Amino acid sequence: MISESEARGEIVRLSKSLFDRGYSVGTAGNISCLVEDGILITPTNSSLGFLDPDRLSKVSRDGRHLSGDKPSKEIFLHRAFYDSRAAAGAVVHLHSTYCTALSCLADLDPNDCIPPLTPYVVMRVGTVRLLPYTRPGDPGTAKLILQLEGKFAAVLLGNHGPVVSGTSLQSAVAAAEELEETAKLLMMLRSLPVRLLGDQDVADLRKHFPQA
Question: Which residue is catalytic, options 10, 74, 178, 180?
């Protein structure tokens, strides 16, 4: 686990990178990271492109606001990943365009809404569940994530966007980027016949990359 000072700098750096490349617009999206004595998370109504490391919100593992600006209203879903998934060290929630578009489609398989189109989505993201729509900031979203019992590193929130966990800030951001790129490919190929990776291919990837 990195120090709190390092985590603050990394949250600001990676958030700005996502914002500058269009993964987040306005005040959409939030990012958090575990530190030794709590959780650092981007403040509510803040732009990922213009964060101040000293004003990041710090909350306890049980959700008490300890310091900094008021935490994101989505703190519930971040805590749900930390509470249910032992490997989670960071969580990234974006409103990235293609993942959000995908989350609005009526014909997705809710149990596996990102088919194995490329090896890297299998390796870095794994199976993705589609959760039903809940109001942004609704604590009920946490219950839906807790019900998954830590079996999934990423979910799509219905009509809302992706939430991706990782062992570190870097891995969570990389997985969120990979998920968005795969969603883009799926939307581009939607009217075309697609060749997916086979079951044996997926099993082989999971054998060699067990984090998937």
Answer: 74
Q: Number of structural domains, the chain?
A: 1
Q: How far apart are CA 177 and CA 124, in angstroms?
A: 10
Q: Looking at residue 94, which CATH number applies to its domain?
A: 3.40.225.10
**How many angstroms separate the CA atoms of 91 and 172, rounded?**
6
Look up residue 132 and give its two tokens. 């039903």
Residue 98 catalytic? Answer: no
CA angle 123, 193, 181 (to 5 degrees): 35
pLDDT tens readout for residues 161-193: 999 999 999 999 999 999 999 999 999 999 899
Query: Which domain does 187 fall in, by range?
Result: 4-208
**pLDDT tens digit string along 70-91?**
999 999 999 999 999 999 999 9
Q: Catalytic annotation on 120?
A: yes
